Each structure stands twice: as C-alpha cells, then as structure tokens.
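Annotated sample (chain length 394).
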Amino acid sequence: MHGKYREYYVTRKLAPFKVDGLAMPYPEFVPRLYNFCKALGFRKGLIMPSRAFCSDENQGLPIILLTKHFGTFPFNHGRVGGIMATDRHGPHAHHGEDLVIVQASHVGYDPDTGVYGKYARPQRIGRCVGDSCGKLTHVITPYLEQYSFAKDRIFLHRDEQQDRYLITVKNSFIDFAFHPVKDGLVLRLQHIAKMNNGGIIRPVTAASTSQVYEVSESFRQRIDATGYVWKTGEGEPIGNLLTEDMFFFREDFHETDESILLERNIIEFMPNIVTAKNPPLRAAKINLQLEFTRVVESIRRGTEYKGKNLLYIAGLNLDISEFDDFPATNYFVPWAAHIQLEGEHPGEHAHPMEQDELFASLMQYSIENPDQINLKEEIGRMLRMPRFDIRSPK
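Output written by the structure step:
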C-alpha cells in the first residue's frame, strides 16, 4: 500500500527587531564603527568602506561621515530601497585590503509625533513633506489600498432567529475551488468559516457579488475575546479585526524595475506590514532582515572576499528632518553583523553577531577617531594643486 503524504505549509518567523534605546546618531556611530574595525585588526589607510543605501539625498550625511572617518569615499553597493547589489562584491574587494560594508534600509522619523515614514524636503518650496523611503512606500501602497478596501467590504453580523454568527465576503476575496483569486487579497476562510466533515466550506446564502458563511466556534470566540458586540441585520465592516493571519496576497508584482527585488523580499510578510501601526517602519525592518540573510549567504558561497578582512554590518537608517536652527540628520539602529578575518579559524565567526551583542560591542568604542581626515583641508589641498595640461592622445 502506498504511503500517504500529508500536505503542510511551512512559514517563516522573523527575529524581533528593536529600535527603542538602540538608535545612534550617525556622528557617533561611524567613529565607533571605525574603532571597532581597528580593534578587529583592520589597518589604517587600507580599509575600503562600502555603503548599500537608497539613493535619496537624505542619505548624504552617512556617506560624508564614512568618507571623513575612513579616509576615502565609500564604494557603492546600493540599489533602491536598501537592496544590495551582490554582484559588486568583486569590484569592492579589489579596491582595498580590509573591507567594510554598511547596509541600511531607511525610513523617516518625526521625534515630535513618533510617526515614521515622512521627511520634509528642504529643496522644495514651502514645507513639503514626502515619503521616506519613497520607493519602499511606493511598493507597499497597492497592498495598503487593497487591505483598506477589504476592511470595508467584509461584514460581520448575527442571525438571531437561527442563532448563527455570519461573515459576508465579496467574491473577489474568495479562493473558490474552480475559480481561485488570480490577483489580490485572499481571505483564509479555512481559519474563519465552518467546514463540513468533508472539509468543504459551504455558504449559507449568496448575493450578487458576495457569499455568506457561518463562522466557526473558535473564530467567534476569538472575536468575542476582543470585546466586539455582534450586530444583527447587515452587521458592520470587519475593520481592524481583519488581522494578518486571516489573509494573504496573491499578486503579479507591480514593480518592473530593479525595485522588484524589494517587492519580492517583503511580499511574504505583506499582511504583517499592512496591519502594522507604522507600515513603512515595519517594511524597512523586514526588508533589512531578509537582505542580511541573502547577502551573508552570497558572501559565504562566493570567493570574492576569501582571504580578506571583512565586516558587513546591517541596520536601519532613521531620517530626521531639519527643525528650528538644526540641520537634518540621521540615526543608525544596528541589526546584525557578519565578520570574517584573514587567517582565523573557520568556526571563529560562524554565526552572525546579533542585535544586542552588536550594539554592546559598538558602544565599547570611542566616538573620537584620531585617524579621521579634515574634509575642508583636503578640498583646500586640491584647490592649491597645479593645473594639469590635459590633452587628447595624438
């Protein structure tokens, strides 16, 4: 007799990403990072930093500070949304003996309100507040709109006469056996509605564009536990009771440029993002965690950094707009780090340095960097250089 194989669904859980108490102003983070590198054995004048940031102008201060403290303009590993171009490992490795990579997704932050995702653009007339990161917000917006649409068009109600608790669902949200949803939000009815003994979910009635199902006892108890009072008649929209475990998205990706990599990263966790209090912050954190995993794998499987000293550190850039007489600035929230050192035992840094350990390690080091360069003096030296007679070859 042939064995029976059970179908199962494997999910992925992300590690908790803390922000509170871990954000460092960039003018403090970068010298700490440089001194951390020196403590690992990296050598002054031989360190080649690289950054993997979004292309927004508000990522300029981190780049300037990396230049100032490491003594050279950083290599560019970045794509839109904080995605890393892993095919640039080779060129980066050829530009220095000791290598540093700083990768960060970014998100705006307003210290007065605690709201994430917005940034005032000083180069615009008036106080023009826009999305930050604009690309990340652009990617998640269609999903936020679909979620908002569904919250208003799925109804909970009670049939008092037959003592039934019901849910009315638009046909476009239902994965029918012969007509599954091809593009859009899909309700996980198996977690909500009653099933018969054959595992079939049958509606109790239908309308022109919707189906009405009796909810399961466990789902009713779950809703009751929130303090919700069921209404009779047509009931009312489910609203915020439509939680992340009740739906998923089946989508043809919206993006057509290289930002499709960002959408691919976060699509699995989109229900978690759209139901979050701060969707841009949640999306940035999730993208960063998944990118870190992908990039570490690319480093370990590749040969570009073999025999080199390498510190790859990932985190979250917080963009804070200018206010009063203070300029715009950035904070860095460290997430994790991958370390490999020339000549070390293979098991020495077999595991990444996780968030708490990484933060504690960085905080051990001074914000004073005796090796930093004076950018004003360097520019002055360039201006004093003789003018070269540059000609085309004959």
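Annotation: The radius of gyration is 26 Å.
Annotation: The longest strand covers residues 98-110.
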